[in-house]
Write a structure and sequence with these properties.
- It is a single chain.
- The two termini are 25 Å apart.
- The radius of gyration is 16 Å and the shape is globular.
- It is α+β, with helices and mostly antiparallel strands.
- An 8-stranded mixed β-sheet has the order 1-2-3-4-5-6-8-7, with helices on both faces.
- Helix 1 packs across helix 2.
- The chain contains 5 helices and 8 strands, in the order ββααβββαβαββα.
- It comes from Saccharibacillus sacchari.
- Its EC number is 2.-.-.-.
- Keywords: Transferase.
- It is an enzyme of class 2 (transferase).
Amino acid sequence: MFSLPLKESVQLKPLRSGHARELLQLIEGSRHTLGPWMPWTQQLQELEDAEEFIGNAARLYAENDAITAGLWEREQLAGVIGFHEINWRSRSTQIGYWLGEAFEGRGLMSLASRALIDYAFIELGLHRIEIRCATNNQRSRGIPERLGFLLEGVLRQAEKLDDGYVDHAVYGMLDEEWGAKRPLF
């Protein structure tokens, strides 16, 4: 599995079974900010759940179907980012990400997203990347907007969250657009 240094003391690297406790603690400490947007946080309650998540991510990576990486700052897990599913026939993927509350507002996820996009287009030879966010999740929407993604449309009632259905803003980036739009951080 790959590791990507992003800047001094910040890197993307694989989650391993030994990271399960730290992953669970990060989710527990941010459950009130993650929970409204990511209902899966309610199912990830025990150490075994975190171990299963990490094991499933490793299996999907080994099968060349997805990539999940931890975002680390000063050797501390700050969040998770990855390609949900890689469609090799269409050479496309979707990026998903979340950040622990204590790490918000410092540009870490924009930095990690940019590096993962570079990896997708340069190393993997993908053609298209999509990012979907609930329309009223402004923090999450800020990532594709800062990175120059095009808002391609809105999917109505695309996801059921605890308090009802939410619309998704769909952002896209093509490989030939990235070179011209790629922001420098």
